[in-house]
Here is the input.
Amino acid sequence: MMVFFTVIIALLLAGIGAVHAENELDIGFAPGDCQSIRFDHARYSVCSFDPGQHDIRIYHSSEAGRIYGSFTALESDLSIHGTELLFAMNGGMYHRNRDPVGLYVESGQQLSDINRNEGPGNFHLMPNGVFYMLDGQGGVLETEVYINARISPNFATQSGPMLVIDGALHPRFLVDGTSKNIRNGVGVRDDGVVMFVLSEERVNFHSFGRVFRDRLHIRNALYLDGSVSRMFHAASARHDYGRRMGPIVGVTPKPAP
Here is the structure.
């Protein structure tokens, strides 16, 4: 009988260990690295970059005014100028002509105004927010907080909804929400590392927000898009193809001082 109970306890402990491994919270993410993780029965690609080691920018059009629209076009243009594209991800929502829906700032120049309008769709699932880069530091803020902070960023893109707001999930996310999609978003850890996440399976907003809050311990995270979500990562030869996009977040090596 003692052997029987010993086996049962061992099996239970193994099961507990399996649950912990799936939602493990102590795996580090080295800056510049991309990992595939499993969280709550879904897989996600997570890429992290330290702005002190990498140049993180947002791109839309070439110097000639041609909208990039794809990772290939951006990679080719950067290569001409002697810069390697290390990572890229679609960087916010856009109109049919691929112009940004909300605020867009590139190289310190505001090319599209901030959008505070009510309306349909994910962008207007208030509160939405802004991902920005300012003097080598990244940030994600709710739109109204961003406005009140009077930030003058080098790069910025507005999207929505916010996924995590000061450590809390967006108030309108439902645990059993039936709207599921491939999704991507961005958050910034307390140590300044910028984290990009792409779901490898269709998930709802609640599950996607929990990856940032509960797995990556990020207090503010922003949804970038859904069905067009995709990623480029040179080190793993990953190059997702799909519909042409608007803004693109790109990561390149830090220029030598």
